Amino acid sequence: MSTLSILPYFPFNRVRIIKQSVSSDSDISQLTAIPDQRFSPKCHMCGSKAQRIHSHEKRSIRDLNIGSTRVWINCSYRKVICKPCNRIVVEDLEFFEPYIRVTRRLASFIYELCKVLTVKDVAKHFGINWKTVKTIDKYFLEQQYGETNYDGLRILAVDEIAISKGHHYMTVVLDYLSGRVVWVGKGRTKETLIDFFNGMTNEQRQAIEAIAMDMWDPYIHTVKSQVPHVKIVFDLFHVVSSFGKVIDKVRNAEFRKATKQDKDVYIGSKYILLKNKRNIRKKEHREHLKQLLSLNETINTVLILKDKLKHLWYYRSRVWAKKALAEWCLLADTLNHPYVRKFTNMLKRYSYGILNHCDYSIHTSKLEGVNNKIKVIKRKAYGFLDERYFSLKIIQAFSN
Ligand SMILES: [Zn+2]
Question: What pTM did the predictor assign?
Answer without folding.
Answer: 0.82
